[in-house]
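Long-time lurker. I teach an intro course on protein structure, and each term I like to show students one example going from raw sequence to a predicted 3D structure in token notation. This year I'd like something fresh instead of my usual example. Would anyone be willing to generate the tokens for the chain below so I can use it in lecture? Attribution to the forum is fine with me.
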Amino acid sequence: MNQVVIEWLGWIATAVFVGSYLCRTSGRLRAVQMAGAVLWIAYGALISSMPVIASNSLVLVAAAWTLMQSTKAEAQS
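-- Reply from a regular --
Happy to contribute to a lecture. Here you go:
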């Protein structure tokens, strides 16, 4: 893949990550975190960086888990 495209993917992932700080609700925050993590995982795969892939895989799982937990709690109340 073109190096410029890979670099842009990294910048887009960075923008999504920074944008997560603007989220006002926890559900939106988790969704944006998950989207950012997916972008970072793709970027990590393209640059063959296991630390980037591993750390963002953990972020993806944690965000998905907390989103599911909050959704369950809201449904029960």
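Some talking points for your students: The two ends are 48 Å apart (CA to CA). The chain has a mean pLDDT of 95.
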